[in-house]
Fold:
Amino acid sequence: MDQVDEIKQKLDIIQVVGEYVQLKKAGVNWKGRCPFHNEKTPSFMVNPDKGIYHCFGCNEGGDIYSFVQKIEGIDFPEALRLLAGKAGVQLEQYDPRISSQKNRLLDICSAATNHWHEILYLAQGKKALEYLQKRGLSELTIKSFKFGYALESWDDLLKYLKSKDFTEAEIFLAGLTVEKSGGRGYYDRFRDRVTFPVFDIHSNVIGFSARTLNKDEAAKYINSPENPIYHKGRTLYGLDKAKQAIRDNGYAIIVEGNMDVVACHQAGFKNVIACSGTALTVEQIKILKRYTENIALCFDQDEAGQRAAQRSVDLLWDAEMNIKIVQLAYGKDPDECIKHDIKLWEQSLRSAKLVMQFYIDKYLTEEALSNINTKKPATKIVLQELAKIKNKIEQAHWLKELANKLDLSEAILRESIPNPSMTSLNPQKTFVVEPKVEKTQDMKYLEKVFTILINHPQLISYAEEFLPIDYIQSTEMATFYKNLLIHYNEASCELTRKQLVEWLANNHDLPTSYLDSLIIYIDEVYEGFRIDDINNELIGLIKTLTKHHLEATIKMLTKELEAAEKRNDKEQIQMLMREMQTKSEELSKLK
Ligand SMILES: [Zn+2]
Structure:
């Protein structure tokens, strides 16, 4: 057994956490007040069987290692050493083991990168090379970013790396293989995929993102799991190639996707990096601050992208960075914009707005200001943003701008600035906290459904039959559910909870802490339930969700009907009436 696991097994998470947090037993879990955010009523749960903790208030979660890292503000090797001491485990060769192990993992990733890159230029890699060329990537780009192709094979990489004297355990730890069930060895994680290495700031490869070339494959991209060298939240894609240009230009452009970075660099915009899919983290901002304080955010133009941008702005304010927002003149992301017309990309950059100006223009439109009912809420939103500015001079500047725009006195506006602690999403800013999205009642029901399905995969087939994906309004939750169904159906044998959780951990876009919370949530809400009770609970939840879906549909149809009646569109009226009839019948059957 690996020492990391050995230490984990020897230590009781209740004792480890208990040194920092007062815990009380509550059923199978232990509860306490969260050390990572301010709260009066405990929502911090620790589960000794699973060895994990999770806060339902701020979404922090993980195992003993992540807990100690977070609370002590230390890195993994230091946390390992600290916990090894508590467990009475002598680390092999003590501290150097960690750094030499890290070096081994870096060597493995580098060897894999070169192996896959070579295959790209062999006959077997032709389709991958063609794929990259079709995406408009030049020879130079492909070489400098070291893209590659992983063969459609279960052990090509494993064999290659073993021939280079790496052990199976090391290769697994580097995230390149997956453990066979029952511990009967390993197989290649990346198969029939174009590989995109992720580099650290020193241009060492630390992980991979890989895109399938198989149309029927559900997971378009899969990524290396977190491991001793790869920490997603601390990695900024492209920074190794961008750092000089960031210093030279005096600012960094942050985009969402890795491929946006590649497109920008190829087009000569080298000061571009990606936060890789989600909002920026505090760790990433700390690293970035070594190079510049000036940030231009260019997130995807869809709703998810704009939300991620908003979250990033909040953290950047906290770090007192200067922020501009880039709105694309064309397309949904920089890659698309550049491919369409590089002039439009240049134009988008030139017309980037300071973030407060962006908010003022976005919310305080002429229309919004034309009457008091829309003016009030719009002003409130902008003032909330203003309240987040830490620098008093900067805040005063924008207050003045705002006063001019609204034709109000600065004094009145100043009084209306909300208390920053009320608006701050991030009370203890050393830690990354997912902002609380107001959950609707249905979202809460869905989370109950999810926690049941994850913990009892045998119930998934029931859900699949009675809860269609289009009943789910939140796109993120719908995607999660869809993936769950796809994986369930693809599994060759009966899925265990463990297998399902492992798969989800590697294949969904929600934060890991969210998955943890779904796993543990079942004990919070259904403690002591027998499987029959859980079964009934699931049936009830799905019934409620169906009812709500039908009610919403009927409401929508009613509106459409009114509109059709106004237009006197007879055909449409008839059709809508029929549809309403069916939906109402379905609904009455449920009641
Ligand atoms: Zn918390």
Q: What stands out?
A: Residues 98-230 form a domain with the DNA primase DNAg catalytic core, N-terminal domain fold (CATH 3.90.980.10). The radius of gyration is 26 Å. The pocket of zinc ion is lined by residues 34, 36-37, 44, 55, 57-58, 60 (CB under 6 Å). The first strand starts at residue 24 and ends at 26.
